[in-house]
């Protein structure tokens, strides 16, 4: 299979995928290395195909938008230690929220944003496991724990509930 055909097939697979697809899965399907797939994704992005990389794999931005349609979307500024990360995510998911991303403001690079797509307890456990397994540091270490999450909820009611719960846990960044 030619590289261009493989890239077109990758787009087709992502269009049909109900969940993110890992680079290793695509590599196995096409009998190429994971690095070839990473390069293919970069070239597809250069063709203005909006592909989001999450810790769970790749997905099309259009699939994310469709999944979030009809939901309330807001941002919350948070401040916590690495040890409180799981608690923060659990509070959000338990109240019906989904964590789209995390962003920090770096003094040199400006806003740095990473897609998370954490929607379930399983997603939380996978994220925590990956952070532990890869000895990863959270983006918020660049800003002494301060970060912003984009959250989607069924309605503003759940968003406000999440806000109150994060405040009670001492995680919501206070405006005072």
TrEMBL record:
Record's protein name: Transcription repressor NadR
Chain positions recorded as Ni(2+) binding sites: 80, 88, 147, 149
GO molecular function: metal ion binding
UniProt key word RNA-binding: no
Source species: Ruoffia tabacinasalis
Entry keyword set: Metal-binding, Nickel
Metal-binding in keyword set: yes
Top-level taxon of origin: Bacteria
Helix-turn-helix type domain ranges (all copies): 6-58
Domain named 3H: residues: 77-172
């Amino acid at each position: 299979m030619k590289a261009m055909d493989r890239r077109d097939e990758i787009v087709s697979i992502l269009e049909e995928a109900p969940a993110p697809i890992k680079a290793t899965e695509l590599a196995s399907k096409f009998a190429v290395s994971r690095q070839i797939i990473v390069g293919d994704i970069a070239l597809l992005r250069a063709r203005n195909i909006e592909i989001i990389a999450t810790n769970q794999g790749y997905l099309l931005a259009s699939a994310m938008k469709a999944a979030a349609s009809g939901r309330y979307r807001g941002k919350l500024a948070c401040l916590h230690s690495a040890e409180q990360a799981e608690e923060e995510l659990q509070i959000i998911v338990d109240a019906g929220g989904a964590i789209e991303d995390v962003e920090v403001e770096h003094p040199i690079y400006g806003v740095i944003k990473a897609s998370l797509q954490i929607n379930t307890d399983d997603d939380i456990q996978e994220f925590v496991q990956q952070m532990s397994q890869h000895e990863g540091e959270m983006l918020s270490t660049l800003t002494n724990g301060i970060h912003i999450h984009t959250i989607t909820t069924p309605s503003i009611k759940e968003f406000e509930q999440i806000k109150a719960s994060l405040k009670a846990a001492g995680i919501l960044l206070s405006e005072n």
